[in-house]
Amino acid sequence: MASETLKTGLLTGLLLVIAGFEMFFLLFPDKGLADSPWRAFYYMPVILAAYWFGLKAGLGLSILTTPVYLLPTIRFFWAGQGFTWGNLPESLVLNLAVWGVGRLRNQLWLLSGQMESNRDLAAVGRAASSIAHDMKTPLMAIGGFVSQVSRTLEPESNEFRKLSIALRQTSRLESLVKDILAYARPMELHKREEDLNQLVLDCLELIEELAGRKQVELKLKQSMGIPPVMLDRSRIQQALINLLSNAVEAAPPGGYVQVSSIHRGNEVRVEVADNGEGIMPDKKEEIFLPFVTAKDQGTGLGLSIARKIVEAHQGRLYVRDALEGGAVFVLLLPLGAKRRRKMFGACNDN
């Protein structure tokens, strides 16, 4: 606060000094009004205002001082000597400079705020990871003991029902801890060339039971001739399973989920489309943030982990609207440099 007061006082003092000398040359034109050197010093407080206080302050001060800066033009016009450009071009240049400096200052403030927010999130993430790590072993022990006790009870008993609820909630907490640790830890990949079409088929088999329970039809559309892709099979499978399960949950009973694999240029893509309600435009990036979910039982980390996996492969994961309603999640993976060289070599041989 004291710093801002000092800056405001300095700007006010500069303006008063410069305006005082300007008025002196106005009152005594024989001293050289047309060649007043002080008018050029208006640049200093105006640009400083933009740098210290942002775009609005800089432009506001520039607009207020422009009439004084244009005193020669105004005086000659008022005296009936006709219109002259005078200092008008310089004034326009000054306002453009102020706009540029003020805009840069505003962007710097925005980036600084984002960096501060990221630091806070990183600290929270480290704390959550530490807590999750400490919770992992006790939860596994609790789940194991509850499971052992439940096996000694009659399935129809009230005690068995209560222990079943406790076991489900323990499993849910274990899943949450697992997701937090997966999101917080550095992503380690073990890549090798894989058949992407076969990987998609394997993922569909794993999701068939959920789709059957939800009465959702699974459709498959694969391009033939997709080259092997360098990837970590278990990681990409994890990402695809997450996208497929979300699509099945989003599709209505009697609806469908369509999976397409496509090869275009230097990349391959897998698209997972559903005919559900879709995603609001302002939510399309928010859903990839950690702990953001519309599900009652979700952890909100599934899509965050999926994007982290894809980006670790130098790929992209995003969502767009489906033509017939619903959402399409697009997973893009680049072909490895070795594979691209082989393809281009084959093209050149032809």
Automatic annotation (TrEMBL):
Enzyme Commission designation: 2.7.13.3
Any single Pfam family the record assigns to this protein: HATPase_c
Stated name of the protein: histidine kinase
Stretches assigned to the Histidine kinase domain: 130-337
Lyase listed as a keyword: no
Root EC class: transferase
MF annotations from Gene Ontology: phosphorelay sensor kinase activity
